[in-house]
Q: What sequence folds into this?
């Protein structure tokens, strides 16, 4: 009858088809772009290794400590099993009797609980015997060594070797291997033993060494020669510090978008190489913290994002203090773009039959049939007919409103979207003020958009992951989407106009004196968000400042902020460090746009000595006193300001004064040098 009952139980107890997820889960490691510097670890600390990589003396130590008859038994020990059953029935804590195979079955396969019951123990025995019949001993030992918990948060022999001795399992000595075998019995107690626990750990280690002598793994002389190993100090649990919080958030989000589940990330043993440059990340944080005064109000937030134009890789960013903010300032926070949106309008025009010599209406105010109110320029200044270079250089609002009407706002929106600004963020597309930046964008999106111009009109999808390698060694190299946004010549001409912004216009504080720079300032209504976006051929960077409460950005000692003040200084501080040692690259040549003018590609003004920049107490969207159209000088000798309400230029060149012009009456401006629109955008991840 007993034999019959056993046969029935044997037939009705198959080896489980599934394993416990926690038993085989391997944590993922996230690296900086060099593929070596660890940024973060996610999930279970386990690295599966083949048995062949585990030294023989380490295997022998585990067998001597846990199951000396491992290679000879049938997966179970009758004597040990009876002892364990009696322990369960009597409630006494006697020495365990489970073999290595039984321990594996209990921890590896699904369907077996950890409860102490005769039924569970009997089921464990049956499955262990079947595993022994169907699997090789080496397979069982390999799974066991990769499954067992060793303390210090380490699962598996490889992670244990790193945790206790700071080396790979293949480098373990006999003494070190014996200690890890000793730890299996009481992993929590022996993880960092002191006092009585240390004495107990030493005793258990000596017992393992002696057992290895008894099994023939060591000679008597070797047993006598072994010394207790020096344990490495336990490492604190991996903590995300500073910008690492934001980096991991963005990496996780992108992995999810690319089809990797949270389970894959936490237990799939992925090796994720990000696009983040460790040195540039530090440089971004320094640029913000060194430029901003210590008494900057806590509600003022600053974001910075740097994108490689050729690849779309976000190589660096600054997202703020993760202990203070729920969301970061570079990826998540979206604020009105202001005049940094004007280059998208310019590029759309240049790609649709217009050129740099095209004249648009620069008078103020400008009345558009679809707009309920007239749109003014800074301080109500009128420029008359003005070409697209000067319109960009001086950030003339009415000129860009007129240009938007001429080229078509749908084309402007299409260009911005192709350059990486999501369609659902391009609000008020039918409003006359749309070209002036009433849409809200993030620093990463705006840097990515401007990278299009640096990359000759081709936008590379912004991304934060270079490659993902799974536990089996399969490598997935990220291939970002590539989009032709505007023609190469349109991009070159847009870039040329933005070079004048930095040389002579509103962005002189961002000049780099060893290489060409193109850029654009941006200041929204009442300075609720202020920007400087700029680029060299190798790197596009956006800096924005805004407040949590959507009020005017003011800094003690610096007053109300504008794009050409602190944002431009932060940009320059970062780029000075980022471009150090990089070869100087020139921008493509622009079109010759008339006036008998041939662009000077040598850019001799680059060597002008740098001056200390004093933040103005007035708007940065600097509109120079306009010249009458018939007397406008060539762009090599641009007009400059004589108005106390203008941002004084700081390019090291002598100041000149142009004759005044008659201005048309203008309605009161709520904020000089802005787009003239009411900023209703929220400072939040959703804009």
A:
């Amino acid at each position: 009858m007993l034999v019959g009952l056993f046969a029935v139980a044997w037939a009705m107890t198959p080896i489980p088809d599934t394993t416990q997820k926690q038993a085989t889960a391997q944590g993922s490691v996230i690296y900086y772009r060099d593929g070596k510097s660890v940024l973060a670890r996610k999930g279970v600390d386990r690295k599966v290794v083949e048995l062949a990589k585990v030294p023989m003396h380490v295997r022998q130590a585990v067998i001597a400590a846990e199951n000396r008859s491992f290679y000879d038994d049938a997966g179970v020990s009758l004597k040990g099993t009876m002892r364990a059953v009696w322990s369960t029935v009597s409630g006494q804590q006697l020495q365990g009797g489970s073999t290595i195979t039984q321990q594996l079955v209990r921890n590896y396969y699904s369907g077996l609980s950890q409860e102490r019951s005769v039924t569970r123990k009997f089921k464990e025995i049956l499955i262990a015997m079947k595993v022994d019949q169907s699997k090789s001993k080496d397979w069982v030992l390999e799974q066991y060594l990769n499954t067992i918990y060793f303390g210090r948060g380490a699962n598996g022999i490889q992670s244990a070797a790193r945790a206790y001795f700071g080396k790979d399992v293949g480098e373990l000595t006999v003494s070190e291997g014996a200690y890890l075998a000793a730890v299996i019995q009481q992993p929590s107690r022996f993880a960092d033993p002191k006092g009585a626990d240390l004495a107990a750990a030493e005793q258990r280690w000596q017992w393992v060494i002696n057992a290895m002598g008894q099994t023939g793994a060591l000679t008597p002389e070797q047993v006598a020669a072994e010394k207790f190993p020096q344990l490495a100090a336990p490492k604190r649990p991996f903590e995300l510090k500073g910008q690492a919080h934001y980096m991991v958030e963005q990496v996780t989000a992108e992995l999810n978008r690319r089809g990797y589940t949270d389970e894959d990330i936490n237990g799939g043993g992925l090796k994720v190489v990000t696009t983040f440059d460790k040195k540039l990340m530090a440089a971004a944080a320094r640029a913000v913290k060194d430029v901003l005064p210590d008494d900057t109000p806590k509600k003022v937030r600053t974001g910075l994002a740097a994108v490689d134009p050729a690849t779309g890789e976000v190589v660096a960013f600054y997202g703020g203090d993760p202990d203070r903010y729920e969301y970061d300032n570079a990826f998540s926070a979206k604020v009105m773009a202001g005049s940094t949106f004007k280059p998208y309008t310019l590029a759309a025009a240049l790609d649709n039959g217009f050129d740099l010599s095209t004249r648009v209406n620069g008078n103020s105010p400008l009345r558009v049939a679809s707009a309920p109110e007239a749109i003014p320029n800074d301080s109500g200044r009128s420029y008359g007919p003005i070409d697209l270079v000067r319109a960009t250089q001086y950030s003339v609002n009415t000129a860009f409103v007129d240009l938007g009407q001429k080229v078509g706002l749908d084309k402007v929106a299409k260009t911005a979207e192709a350059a990486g600004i999501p369609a659902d963020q391009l609000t008020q597309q039918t409003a006359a003020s749309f070209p002036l930046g009433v849409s809200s964008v993030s620093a990463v999106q705006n840097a990515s958009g401007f990278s299009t111009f640096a990359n000759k009109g081709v936008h590379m999808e912004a991304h934060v992951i270079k490659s993902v390698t799974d536990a089996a060694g399969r490598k997935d190299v990220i291939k970002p989407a590539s989009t032709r946004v505007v023609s190469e010549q349109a991009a070159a001409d847009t870039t040329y106009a933005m070079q004048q912004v930095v040389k002579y216009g509103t962005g002189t504080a961002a000049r780099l004196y060893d290489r060409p720079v193109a850029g654009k300032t941006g200041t929204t209504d009442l300075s609720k968000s202020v920007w400087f976006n700029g680029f060299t051929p190798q790197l596009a960077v956006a800096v924005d400042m805004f407040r949590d409460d959507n009020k005017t950005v003011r800094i003690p000692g610096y007053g109300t902020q504008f794009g050409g003040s602190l944002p431009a200084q932060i940009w320059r501080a970062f780029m000075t460090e980022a471009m150090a040692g990089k070869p100087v690259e020139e921008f493509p040549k622009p079109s010759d746009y008339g006036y008998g003018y041939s662009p000077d590609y040598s850019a001799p003004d680059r060597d002008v000595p740098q001056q200390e920049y004093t933040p103005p107490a007035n708007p940065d969207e600097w509109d120079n006193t306009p010249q009458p159209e018939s007397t406008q000088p060539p762009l090599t000798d641009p007009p400059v300001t004589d108005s106390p309400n203008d941002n004084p230029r700081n390019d090291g060149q002598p100041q000149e004064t142009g004759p005044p012009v008659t201005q048309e009456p203008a309605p009161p401006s709520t904020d000089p040098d802005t787009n003239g629109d009411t900023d209703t955008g929220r400072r939040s991840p959703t804009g």
User: Anything to note?
Assistant: The chain has 21 helices and 18 strands. The first helix runs from residue 2 to 11. Residues 595-687 have pLDDT under 50 and may be disordered.
